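Intended use. Records like the one below are meant for learning the mapping from a protein sequence to its folded structure. Do not use them to infer anything beyond what is encoded.
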Amino acid sequence: MKKYIFTTAVILTSYLILHTSFSLAAENAPLTKKQNHTIDSLKRVLETTDNKGKAKVYNELAKIYLSFSYEKSYEYAQQALEHAKKYRNKDEEVNAIFTIGNVYNAQFMPDKALSCFQKALEMYQKSGNKMQTAKALNNIGRIYFNTGEYNKAMQYFQKTEKLSRDISYTKGLMYALNNIGVIYENTGEYKKALQYDEDVLALSKKVNDTYFLSLSTFAIGKIYSSLGDYAKAFEYLQEALKIYEQLFAREGDLLNKQGMANVLNMMGEIYFNIGNSNKSLEYHKRALKIYEELNHKEGISSCLNNIGAVYNESGNSHKAMEYFQQALKYAEGIVNKKLIAEILNNIGVTCHALGNYNEALNMHQKSFESAKEAGNKQLMIITLCNIGEDYMMLKNYREGQKYFKQSLELAKAIGDKKNIVNNYERFSILKDKEGNYKEALEYHKLFKIMNDSIYNEESSKKIAEAQFKLENEKKDKEIILNNKKIEILQRDKKIALLKLYIFVSALLLLVIIGLLIYNRQRIKTLKELEIAEKERKIIENELEISVKNLKIKEAQKALMESEITKEREIAEKEKQINETQKELMRAELEHKNEHVMNMGVHIVNKNSILQEIKENIKTVNLALDKNDMEQAIKMLADLSRNITTSMNISKEQEEFNKQMEQINEEFYFKLSKHFPELTDYEKKLSALLKLNLSSKEIASLLNISSSSVDVSRHRLRKKMNIQEKTNFVQFLNQL
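Structure written out for the chain above:
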C-alpha cells in the first residue's frame, strides 16, 4: 500500500489517514470567567423579561453554549423557537433555527443541519437581512464541504463572497475567502488556495481581526507544507503559534490554547514528511499534552492517531496499533464519524502491512460505513479503494475490481483528480495480476496521462532547474580542468614570476584582510552600541506601557467592583420587593379562601335550616291531622322565623359561586392543563374537595345527596388516575 501521508483538512489520495484539523470548540470545554459572567447576566435578565422578550435572551444563551455544550445550546434554542412562534417574532424564530442548524452541524448531522440552514436562508432572504443571508449561505457551503461535495460547496461560498462584497461585510468576506481556499487546498490547487489565504491575511491585518490573522497564517503554513516548501511552512506555522500564544497570554481564551495545539500537531506532520520521526513525535506529544489539559477528546484522538502513524512508518507496527486503538477509544466517545472512519482506515492499513488481509478488509469495511454515515465522499473513495486493495491481495480480483470501480466512479462524480489517478494505478496493478496485460497497459496509460496532467508543470519546472544546475556544474568543471592544463604548460616558464606574484598577492591579501577585519569589527561595535541603545529605549517604552496598562486594569477592576456592588444591591432590593408582593398575595389568597369557607359553612347551615323547616312542615301537618290547633299555630310561628332568616340564600349561593370562580381561576387552569377531559362540575367538585369540606357539606352546597358526592369523588379520583393510598385533598392542594 502507499506511504503514510498527513492531511490537514480533508483526506487526499493517501491510504493511511492522519487527522490534524477539527473544530476549535470542544464539547464540555470549560467556560472562561467572561463567558460565565455573561451567562449569569443573561439568566438574571431572563427572570425579569416578559414572555415576548424571552426568545431573544434564549437565543443569546444558545449561541454562547454552542462552543461548550451542544445539549444546552439545543435546549435554549428550542425554547427560543417556541417563544418566538408563540408571540410571532419572526426575527428570533429564524435565529433559533439557525443556531439549531449549527448544533446539528457540530454533531455531524449534515442532513438535519442542511434542512435548518436552508429554512433559515429562505426566511433571511424574505426579511431582507443580507448579513444573516451571507452567514446562512456560508454554512450551507460548509455542509456540502464536510460531505465532500466540493462543487456545491464552492457555489455557496462564491455566493457568500459576492454578497459580502456587495454589503461591505468584511467578516463574511473573510469566511468565504478562507473556505474557498480550503477547497482549493483539498483538491490539490495549492497556488489558488495560497492566493485566497493571502487575501484573508491581508484583510485580517487591515481590520485587526486576530481570529482570521491566526487562522490564515496557519492555513498558509499548511499550504507551503503541501507544496513541499517546509522552510516557509515552518516560518508561517511559528508565526501562527506566536499569535496564539500571545492571544492566550493576553485573553486567557482556551480556544487560542487549542489553536496552539493545532499548530504543534501540524509541525509534527512536517517533521514526519522530512523523515525526522523523533521530532515528529516530540511535537505531536506536545500537542497531545495541551489537548489532555483541555479534555479535548477529538484533539486527543487525533494526536494518538498521528503518533500511531509515526510509529508505523518507523516499522513499529505493533506499537502503532496500540496508539490507533487508543485513538479509536477516544473517537467513539464523540460524534465525529469522519474521525472514527480515519482511525479505522489506519488500523486496516496497519493490518494490511502486517499481511493480515482479512482483518484489514474488516477494518476498511467498518471505515467505509462510518465515512458513509459522515457523508464524506472523499473518505468513502479512499476506503473503497483500500477494500479493493485488500481483495486484490486475497486474490479475489472480481471483488477488488468491483470496489476499485465504485471508488473511481465516486471520484469522477466529485472531480477528485488525485484519487482518479490513484484508482487507474490500482486497476493497472490488478489487471497485471490477473494476467490481462492489455487492459493493464490501457489503465497504466490512463494513469500516466492524468498523472502527467496534474504534475507535469511542476515536474517540468524542477527538471529544467535540475538540468540548468547540472549544465552549469559541468561548465565550471571544464573551466577548472582547462585552467589546470594551462597552468601545467606554463609552470616551467613562469614559475619565478608566479612565485613573485603569489608573494605580492598574498601580502596584499593579508593587508586587505587585516583592513577588512578592522573595519568589520569597528562596524560591529557601532552596531552593537546602536542595538543596545534601541533595546534600552524599547525596554523603557515597554515599562512605561506596562505601568499604564496596570493603572488601566486597576481602574477597570475598581469600576467592575463598583458595578458588581450596584448589581447586588439592585438584586437584593428586587428580591425584597418580590418577597413583599408574594406575602401580600399570599395573605389576600388566604383571606379569600377563609371568606369562601365561611360563606360555604353559612350556606351549609342555611341548607340545614331549610331542611329543618321541611321537617317542621311535616310536624305541622301531623298536628293539623290531629286537630291540635294550638300546637300547630305555635309551630307555624317558629317556621315563619326560620323562613325569614333564610330568605337570602339564593343571593348568597350566587355570591359563593362567584367567589369560588375568582379564587380558583388558576386552579381551574392547572386542572384543564393536566386533565383537559374534566367537566365544569368535576372542576367545581375538585375545588370544594381542595377546601377539605365533608361529603355532607359538599352535598348541601351542590344540592345533592352525600352518597352522590362520594360516587363523584371516586369517579374523579379514577379519572385523574390517583391511587387510593394517595391523599386526594393533599394532591389537589399541591397541584
